[in-house]
Amino acid sequence: MRNIFLIVALALGLVTKAQTFTLKSDDIGGQMTSKQVFNGFGCTGENISPQLSWANAPEGTKSFAITIHDPIAPTGSGWWHWVIFDIPTNAKELKQNAGNLGLNLSPSGSIQSITDFGKGGYGGPCPPEGHGFHQYVITVYALKTDKLGLDKNANPALVGFYLNANTIEKATIVAYYKR
C-alpha cells in the first residue's frame, strides 16, 4: 500500500526532488576565452570578468561571496584572480565585467578586495606559457553573516579564512585555460 501511495504522490508532483545550491555562467563553459584572459604579464586578453549567477541558496544565507582561484599556479599557494564578498542576499548574479571597478556593475555594498595581481577587482587567467592547462575554480559561497568585517585591502588568504568560518554551502564551476 505504501508503494502505491508513493507512486501516486510522485505522479501528482507531491514529492519533489530537493534543489541544490548551484552556480552557472552564460559566458564560460569548460574553457576561459580571450574575453576573460588578463591583459598584461605577456597575455593580451580583454580581462572581462564572466557573468555568474546562482540559485537555491540555503536557508539562513545572509550574504554571498565569489572567488576565482588557480590552484596550480607556480607560486606555492596558487593565484587568486577575483575576491568579492559582502554581496547582499537580494543579488543572484554578477554581470559580465562586474570585476571592473570603474564601471560600478557589482551589487551595491559588495567589496572587491585585492587579488594576487596586487589590486582589487578581476584579473583574468594568464598562466605561464607552455605550462599546460590551468584550472580556474570559480566558487560562490552562501554565508551565515551579512558582512565579513573586512575591507578592500584584505588579502585573499584573510578573506578565505573568514569565508571558511562563515560558509553554509558553496557551489563551484571549473574552467580551464593554457597558452
SSE blueprint:
Blueprint: H1 2-12, E1 22-24, E2 39-40, E3 43-44, E4 52-55, E5 63-70, E6 79-88, E7 93-94, E8 111-112, E9 134-143, H2 156-166, E10 167-177
Antiparallel strand pairs: 1-4, 2-3, 4-7, 5-6, 5-9, 6-8, 9-10
Describe this structure as you would to a colleague.
The chain is α+β, with helices and mostly antiparallel strands and 179 residues long. It is 12% helix and 30% strand. The chain contains 2 helices and 10 strands; from the N terminus they run αβββββββββαβ. It is globular, with a radius of gyration of 19 Å. The chain starts with a helix and ends with a strand.
List keywords for this structure.
179 residues; alpha+beta; five-stranded antiparallel β-sheet
Rg to the nearest angstrom?
19 Å
Order of helices and strands: HEEEEEEEEEHE
* DSSP strand count: 10
Structural class: alpha+beta
Roughly what percent helix? 10-25%
Quickly count the helices.
Answer: 2
Largest sheet: 5 strands, antiparallel
Mean pLDDT: 92
**In one word, what is the shape?**
globular
Uncertain segments of ≥5 residues (pLDDT<50)?
4-12
**Beta-strand residue percentage:** 25-35%
Cα distance, first to last residue? 62 Å
**What is the topology, as strand order, of the major beta sheet?**
8-6-5-9-10
